[in-house]
Amino acid sequence: MAPRVVVVGASLGGLRAAEALTSLGLAPGQVTIVGAERHPPYNRPPLSKELLEDLGDIPDAFAKTAFRLKPEVAAAHWRLGTPAVAADLGTRLVHLSDGSTLPYDALMVATGLTPRRLPFPGGDRQRFVLRTLEDAAALRQALRPEHAVVVVGAGFIGCEAAATAAKLGCSVTVVEPQGAPMARAIGAEVGAALQRLHTARGVRFRTKVGVLELICDRSGTLKGVRLSDGTELEADVLVEAIGSSANVDWLRGQGLDLSNGLLCDNHMRVEGRGDLYGIGDVARFPNPLYDAEPRRVEHWCVPGQTARRAAETVVATLNGAPPPEAEFRPLPSFWSDQHGLRIQSFGLPAIADGIEVLEGALDTPQTIERGVAIGYRRAGRPVAVLAIALPPGRALRHRAFLDA
Amino acid sequence: MRMCVDMKKCQYHGQCVIAAPDLFSFAEDGSLKWVETIDDSLRQQAEDAADVCPEQAITLEG
């Protein structure tokens, strides 16, 4: 019988895995894609950006974000709306939520992330996260002009949601227990500069304070939040953008390293196994472009890059051939749109220990709007370049900094 | 093979220029330039560019 590959996760990573497997010679019938959501794969970044602003109903939002399915991928087995609930790695079986089981020769894990929630009760109908189409459609309904919106967490999703809410006429405050927004990803100095830009566009910030409790009336309606410094903020809408955790619970109890996602080697295999692979946001893998430390990288490009690498290894292994010899050294990149300005990153600014301004100036919102490029170094070596509000050609030319 | 880029969808991420430098470039004025008729030897580059486009603006025919 022809070997079977089960891909668990039907978002970008699962889609790219199915595409790569079939383009590398597997028949569509050998590939099964399992998804927790009922939708075929769709693109998530617009949900916190431009699309959030003019989001219609869910079918409309899906139509605007759906990925194209190549015929050989459409012809694979799709099991949507039935999340995997367990896997038996010994007998090579995946158990789905409807009680069915899928045998496999190779299992590819592309289950993505679940947003973390604040650990407080109450106000359920006014509390939102951003991950799925349903999440975005529900939040869009709640973002009415004049509403008081509190965004907890000043990462990229929180900042994008805050910018969109401000544009829609909401009164927006971002609460961030750490310092400057996006500091973990792009450093405190650039984060502080972008905070000034947000402030100039009407978004307020409360940094170095956390949420202590939610203030609800007797009917359970959310009225505000109490912060760790004792102050209160009015809130009609609460956006929880405090990060995500990897969806690996269904793999627990079988001796895997699941301490932060699924630990994989440079071939995207779980170390020592030829039948288990990680893809995208859940996969913690080493990138020798930087060092030997395995990292999870939650950028849009990673599912595509890791899916291709994993699929090449899967197909080689199923054919009894050695995996690709060349090291896997993908260049991570991400982008963000806030207040109409594009932020574009190449490399891993998060690991840098110093920055230099390559073009423009971070000083004021006005200088940022004219375009800035920042180079990031670690121990003197270039590791990333970030462009803000630069025309596309000029942003790309700064990638040469990475070759220095 | 023919390659089309839907400029109504393109948001100038530039991922295609990175993935397929032989097929895409930015002109001095910032506009996107691309090769419309793709040689078989550059087919993989074209497919890579279509895959990495965050807006799915690139389509391949034939």
From TrEMBL, chain A:
Keywords: FAD, Flavoprotein, Oxidoreductase. This is NADPH-dependent 2,4-dienoyl-CoA reductase/sulfur reductase-like enzyme. The keyword Flavoprotein applies. Its cofactor is FAD. The keyword Secreted does not apply. Residues 4-294 form the FAD/NAD(P)-binding domain. It comes from Xanthobacter agilis. Gene3D superfamilies: 3.30.390.30, FAD/NAD(P)-binding domain (3.50.50.60).
